[in-house]
Amino acid sequence: NPDLKSEFSWIFDLTYKGEIQSVFQYEISLFRNNIDNAIYQITKGTQEDGTPIYQNQNVGKSYSTGYEIAIGIKPVKEITVGANYSYIYRENKENKEVKFTDVPNHKSVIYGNFSLPSRNTTYLHVDMEINSKRYYTSDGKTLPGYMLTNAKIFSKVWKGISMEAGVKNLFDKNYCLAINYPKEGRIYFTSITYDF
Q1: pLDDT digits (tens, 9 = 90+) for 76-119
Q2: 168: β partners
């Protein structure tokens, strides 16, 4: 789009974090973004397979606002669990029917680290990521939300050498971030790292 202009924004962020006796940590953030000449991915049509055709366009004044909450708990040295949740709302002030694409309104992550009592350099990490539905066209078509679970075991084995092995998308969920482009299913991985 040769007529595309640069967008300009004012970003406001207020964050507070603290802890209680090194056992409970928390962080709360509030944010707002006021945008002039906002650039949207506007849906102009579809290809034969149904994939949308996009063009970046300026759509005037927009804003996004939301918050994020994160907590972490470490009841004993060997266990750390936590979670975070974020909410974002975005709107075009001049045409509320035009939707922002590719970003879910709700997202959360829950995680846990569990190490061996006698060897805290060996641990199991498990996390779960939850995403709500998202728009994939500017006229309001949506992709469904999804939940992914990942797990890995990590260990420092000897003088700078560490190993890890795990699985991403443990339950082999079908999901996609763009229409007609499915993401990977269950993936196993392993690695060896040497730190000089």
Answers
A1: 989 999 999 999 999 988 888 888 888 999 999 999 999 988 77
A2: 187
Q: What CA–CA distance (Å, rounded) separates 136 from 47?
A: 14
d(CA 89, CA 105): 6
Distance of CA 27 to the CA centre of its chain: 17
The answer to whether residues 75 and 111 touch, using CB atoms and an 8 Å cutoff, is no
Collapsing DSSP to helix, strand or coil, 88 comes out as strand
Report the alpha-carbon distance of residue 137 to residue 52 in Å, rounded: 7
Contact 90, 103 (CB under 8 A): yes
Sign of the Cα pseudo-torsion (93, 94, 96, 102, in order)? negative
Taken as a whole, the chain contains a residue count of 196
142 within some domain: yes
Q: Is residue 3 part of a domain?
A: no
Task: Return left, alpha or beta for 133; rule: phi > 0 is left, psi -120 to 50 is alpha, else beta.
Answer: beta
Domain, as residue range, for 102: 8-194
The count of structural domains within the chain is 1
